[in-house]
Amino acid sequence: MRFLHNLGFFCILFLVSPLFTSSQEHVKGVSNHKEHIHKHMSRKLSFEIKLHGFLLWASMGFLTPVGLLAIRMSHRVQCRRRLRILFYVHALSEILSLLLSTAGAVMSFRNFNNSFNNRHQRIGVGLYGLIWLQALIGIVRPQRGSKGRSMWFLVHWMLGTAVSLLGVLNIYTGLVAYQEKTSKGIKFWTIVFTAEVCFITFFYLFQDKWVYIHKQGVSLGNESKGATTDQVVLPRDKQKEVAPAESC
């Protein structure tokens, strides 16, 4: 009787064990599938973070400074053709910067955790608003010589400066946020971006003084030659007529 009882027990165990094994394999398969999805999402999220950072660097770290330098250089240009070219460079750079920053902001709102609990996100929201405000002010530019031109220029200049400074600051905070989220080093990119900022700053300050330096050299070089030719050869009232026009 005991033999029959044990035989029945082993038969039931033999029948149930495949079900138990298949259940374990099913659970393991579900776990592996979830882990695969998690890895895939992590790779996707990492790519989106890098793309977001690249778009904002291209916008705030490159195109905005290029537009700022172009309009700064135009203050010393007398040729209308060169002045028009620099103005178009400024306008196109700022339009592309606006489009790229908008694409980066849309990516951030759609794909990232926007709890606004860190400095990068809070600065980013304020910066995005200032970018669009600056664009609208640029569109409604008054004609040169009109009554509100001076006030418009002051506001446009102040907003442009604020956007440039906040843009550079937010790139640094974005690198810090990237390091905190991915645990990856940012030392190399920080050094590269700092070198770029230093070069742009130096060029911004130097090009404003280049004309002055050039004039200093010209005036010192021509000081010993000048006066006798005009006084002896040409009458005083004819000097303006033969004065060479500035070439383009």
From TrEMBL:
Keyword annotations of the record: Electron transport, Heme, Iron, Membrane, Metal-binding, Signal, Transmembrane, Transmembrane helix, Transport
UniProt keyword annotation of Transport present: yes
Naturally occurring in which organism (per UniProt): Rosa chinensis
Any one Gene Ontology cellular component term annotated for this protein: membrane
Residues annotated as signal peptide: 1-23
Keyword set includes Protein biosynthesis: no
InterPro entries in the cross-refs: CYB561D1/2, Cyt_b561/ferric_Rdtase_TM
Protein name (database record): Putative cytochrome b561/ferric reductase transmembrane
